[in-house]
Amino acid sequence: PDTVDSGLPVIDKTLTIEGNGATIERSTAVGIPIFGIISVSATGDLTLSHITIANGKSGTGGGIDVDNGVLTVDNSTITGNAAIADGGGIENDGGTVTILNSTIAGNSAGEWGGGIGTNMRGEATIVNSTISGNTAVWGGGAIFQDVADHRIGDFKGDGVDRDVVGLYVDAQFF
Are 132 and 155 in contact (CB under 8 A)? Predict the structure, then answer.
C-alpha cells in the first residue's frame, strides 16, 4: 500500500473478520496521529463481514488501502474516513474489491474517489450497496475509476464532488 501506517498489521494472507456489529476506528481526539485502518498487500485476501471501519485518515485509502490484493466487504459500513489524495473510504490499486450489501458513506478524498478510488487496472464489483455522502475535491465523490473495471448492480448513490458527479470514469473500460 501507499502507506504502511495502518491501525492493524498489513494483511498479507487470507483472513476473515466477522465483526458481529463491532467497529474498528481511529480516535478523532486532538493529537492522534494520521493512519489508515487496514492495508491489504498483494498476497492478502481479506473478507470483512458485519463490521464498521471508521475515522481512518492517511495519504491514500483512509479506511482501507488495497495494493494488488483482494478485499470483500459484506454487510458492513465504511464511514467517516479521509484520504489526503485518493480513496477516502477504500483505495484499490490494482486489486480486486467486492462490496456486497454494504454502505460506504461520509468519506472524503483530497483528490479522487471519496468513497472508492480504483487505479492501476484494479477491479471493483458493487452489489446491493449504498454509496452516499462521500466527497472528492477533483472527481468521483462516490467512485473514481482510472484504468479500472467496475461492475455495479443494485447501486444507490449520490457522491458529490466539484463537478457534482458521483462516478468519474477515466480511460473507459467500463
Answer: no
CA distance 172 to 62: 26
- C-alpha closest to that of 81 among 110, 103, 61: 61
On the question of pLDDT at 68 being above 90, the answer is: yes
pLDDT digits over 12-52, tens only?
999 999 999 999 999 999 999 999 999 999 999 999 999 99
Distance between CA 19 and CA 1 in Å, rounded?
23
What span, in angstroms and rounded, lies between the C-alpha atoms of 171 and 36?
28
Binning the chain into helix, strand and coil, the percentages to the nearest 5 are 0, 55, 45
E strand intervals along 75-157: 77-79, 82-83, 90-93, 96-100, 103-105, 108-109, 116-119, 123-132, 135-136, 143-146, 149-157
Amino acid at 56: G
Q: Which residue has the cell 448513490?
A: 157
d(CA 68, CA 127): 21
Q: Which of 151, 88, 100, 164 is nearest to 130 (CA)?
A: 100
